[in-house]
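User: Sorry, what's this?
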Amino acid sequence: MADPTRRAVIEQLASGPASVSELHAPHQMALPTFMRHLKVLEDTGIMRSIKKGRVRTCHIEAAPLIEAQGWLAWQREIWESRLDNLDALAHNIANLKDT
C-alpha cells in the first residue's frame, strides 16, 4: 500500500469495477510496468480480475482492506493511549517545576 500507483488503483476500484485499460489511462507508465502493480494487488488479495474475451475487468476485494482497517484502528488506540500517558506525565513534570 506504500506505492502511490497501487493506492490510486484501489481508489479507482472503490467506485466500482474497471477494465485494465481504464485503470491504466491516468498513469504515465508503460502497460507492462502497470501490470506488475496489478499483479501485486492480486497476489495480496486486495483485487481480483476476470478476463472476458480480450477485456480484463478488475474488482476490489474488501476483506483484506477491512482486516487492515481493524489492525490500524487497534494501533491507533494503542498510540493514543501512549500519547495521553505522555501528556499526563509532561503536565505532572510541569506542575512539579511550578511548586
Summary: The chain has two domains: 4-60, 63-99. The helical segments are 4-14, 20-24, 31-43, 62-98.
